[in-house]
């Protein structure tokens, strides 16, 4: 797979997945150009690759001043911008709309008549189509029905984004490909990155980095609902390879799971992280989250393997080792990002800055 000689746009390219994708593409050492657009709402400038081939433009893709400078000279577009997370979207549905739904519509509408684009890859979410149940999970396939009942505005926004991708492909011939993420983890995810967004979920945004950070600080890992929820945890390098495969091999108008096909319980995740981080603090059991009905899920891998040649390579245990090693080397950066938000917390709720498990 190669992007040699290509002009690439990554919307949300300073974020966790976007910056890892940019680094992976740039590692080819080819003569292409990467434009990154990011408003740094949930990301850090430090994550943008320092490379002469990178043109970083700070701002939202919904800003007409930013959008007007996106011209018909891109071969590939990766749309990874989002309003990060279920709980932030529940707290502020309008902000989720502005930074999740509207980003997708304005980008697609702007580029709908571009002729150079070979593929526009949209990052969707497996939680949007997963069964809302705590019963035994079945692998979620790409043709699973999208139910009208969703757990959060974030999930709804991702579904709407898929609808718009399908619409703009059919109506305007825009070569969109939808890549449905599972639970991504790995090096480069900075807890507390970006601006305060109203809730502790600004800091404790995903379960894996939260568990890693707390384990490294010798604190018990808070596990909700006895740890029985399950997720398909996929290493960020695998997600980036899946995105690249979607761009180079994906069928326009189609959708692919970027998944491992393996189900891991939150309790098993916590126990593994404690072991690898050499933490003896154990776990602390907490109540079930009232809004979360997508209890057990993992993605089917058959279609992506068959049509994209994509198979996730990094086993969970190996990925967690690499994530913990990265976190150990970047504790100052992470702690500094977290500490920025303490001033926004009310005294009576300051305790909620303590890490807790929030699987997406």
Label this structure with key terms:
360 residues; alpha/beta; 7-stranded parallel sheet; two-stranded parallel sheet; 11 helices; 13 strands; globular
Q: What does the model show?
A:
It contains eleven helices and 13 strands. By secondary structure, it is of the alpha/beta class. The chain has a seven-stranded parallel beta sheet, sandwiched between helices. The protein has a two-stranded parallel sheet with strand order 7-10. Helix 5 (153-172) links the parallel strand 5 (119-125) and strand 6 (176-181). The model has no long low-confidence stretch (mean pLDDT 93).
Main β-sheet, spatial strand arrangement:
3-2-1-4-5-6-11
How much of the polypeptide forms β-strand, as a percent range?
15-25%
| Whole-number mean pLDDT | 93
* Main sheet specs: 7 strands, parallel
Tell how many strands the DSSP assignment holds.
13
SS content category: alpha/beta
SSE order and pairing:
Blueprint: E1 7-11, H1 16-26, E2 33-38, E3 54-58, H2 64-67, E4 76-79, H3 86-91, H4 93-111, E5 119-125, H5 153-172, E6 176-181, E7 183-185, H6 207-216, E8 221-224, E9 230-231, E10 233-235, H7 236-249, E11 255-258, E12 264-265, H8 266-276, E13 283-286, H9 302-308, H10 316-329, H11 331-339
Parallel strand pairs: 1-2, 1-4, 2-3, 4-5, 5-6, 6-11, 7-10, 8-13
Antiparallel strand pairs: 9-12
């Amino acid at each position: 797979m190669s992007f040699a000689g290509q002009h690439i746009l990554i919307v949300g390219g300073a974020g966790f997945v976007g910056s890892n994708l940019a680094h992976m593409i740039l590692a080819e050492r080819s003569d292409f150009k990467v434009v990154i657009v990011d408003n740094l709402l949930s990301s850090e400038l430090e994550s943008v690759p320092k490379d002469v081939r990178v043109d970083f433009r700070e701002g939202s893709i919904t800003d007409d001043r930013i959008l007007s400078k996106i011209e018909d000279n891109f071969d590939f577009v990766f749309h990874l911008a989002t309003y990060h997370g279920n709980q932030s979207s529940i707290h502020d549905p309008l902000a989720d709309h502005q930074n999740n739904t509207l980003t997708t519509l304005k980008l697609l509408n702007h580029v709908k008549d571009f002729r150079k684009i070979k593929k526009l890859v949209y990052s969707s979410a497996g939680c949007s189509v997963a069964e809302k149940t705590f019963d035994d999970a079945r692998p979620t396939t790409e043709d699973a029905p999208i139910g009208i009942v969703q757990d959060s505005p974030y999930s709804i926004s991702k579904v709407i984004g898929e609808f718009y991708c399908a619409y703009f492909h059919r109506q305007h011939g825009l070569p969109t490909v939808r890549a449905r993420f599972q639970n991504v983890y790995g090096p480069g995810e900075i807890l507390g990155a970006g601006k305060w967004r109203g809730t502790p979920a600004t800091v404790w945004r995903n379960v894996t980095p939260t568990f890693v950070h707390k384990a490294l600080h010798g604190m018990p890992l808070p596990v909700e609902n006895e740890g029985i929820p399950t997720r398909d945890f996929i290493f960020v390098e695998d997600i980036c390879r899946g995105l690249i495969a979607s761009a180079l091999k994906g069928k326009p108008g189609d959708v692919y799971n970027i998944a491992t096909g393996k189900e891991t319980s939150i309790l098993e995740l916590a126990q593994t992280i404690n072991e690898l981080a050499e933490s003896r603090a154990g776990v602390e059991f907490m109540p079930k989250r009232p809004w979360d009905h997508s209890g057990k899920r993992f993605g089917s891998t058959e279609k992506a393997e068959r049509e994209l040649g994509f198979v996730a390579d990094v086993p969970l245990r190996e990925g967690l080792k690499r994530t913990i090693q990265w976190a150990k080397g970047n504790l100052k950066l992470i702690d500094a990002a977290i500490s920025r938000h303490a001033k926004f917390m009310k005294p009576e709720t300051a305790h909620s800055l303590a890490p807790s498990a929030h699987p997406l």
